[in-house]
Write a structure and sequence with these properties.
The protein has 198 residues and is mostly helical. It has nine helices and two strands. Helix 1 crosses helix 4 and helix 6 runs antiparallel to helix 7. The longest helix has 29 residues. It is globular, with a radius of gyration of 18 Å. The two termini are 35 Å apart.
């Protein structure tokens, strides 16, 4: 059984923001707040101004221990191979979003009919990537259930995109597809003990 402590520590490690960490963890507000209180008392996390939160050195050690225990509990760990599949999707997603952003220079937000045209343009490009991402996350979540929360969040963001809301592509004011994908990438890297290339 995957621990709530692992979910909270991982979310804090990859977001360093209390609000985002709560969302990323997949835990309810009350459970997350209680966990953070206990982690703070134990010296595993440090909280700062404006919602900033991060792991202490002891917290990073504890996260490493939990990840090691997670790996040892798996009969077969295919994460490295699955990560290779993720990287192929990552390249396709970045290309699709980069082309879409040409429609919105300097962050301009289209309105009215233009929003729907843009959604119609992006939907067929993103849809196959999205479907493969959900399939991939399903396989990852077989041994690591916390990854199912990324699938749920991507579904909500994709729904927003299909509704003609461009902020759900790469906006920072909502839980956008790009934001979720970035956090997923960080989670995979941390889980495997790797650093982002470049």
């Amino acid at each position: 059984m995957e621990s709530s402590e692992l979910k909270a520590l991982m979310a804090i490690a990859i977001t360093r923001d209390r609000g985002r960490a709560e969302n990323t963890s997949g835990l309810g507000s009350a459970d997350f707040a209680k966990l953070v209180e206990g982690l703070s008392r134990s010296g595993l996390v440090r909280e700062g101004a404006k919602g900033r939160i991060e792991l202490s050195e002891e917290g990073r050690v504890r996260l490493g221990e939990l990840l090691s225990a997670e790996r040892e509990g798996l009969e077969r760990d295919d994460l490295s191979a699955l990560y290779g599949e993720f990287l192929r999707l990552d390249a396709e997603l970045k290309s699709a979003i980069a082309h879409w952003q040409l429609l919105h220079p300097r962050g301009a937000v289209a309105g009215g009919e233009q929003r729907w045209r843009d959604a119609a343009w992006l939907d067929p490009k993103l849809d196959p990537i999205h479907r493969r991402a959900l399939s991939l996350l399903g396989r990852i979540a077989t041994g690591r259930p916390r990854f199912s929360n990324y699938a749920n969040r991507l579904e909500r963001a994709f729904f927003g995109i299909r509704q003609g809301k461009p902020e759900f592509v790469a906006g920072v004011s909502v839980d956008s597809y790009h934001t979720i994908w970035f956090e997923l990438h960080e989670d995979l890297l941390t889980t495997m003990g790797k650093e982002r290339a470049g």
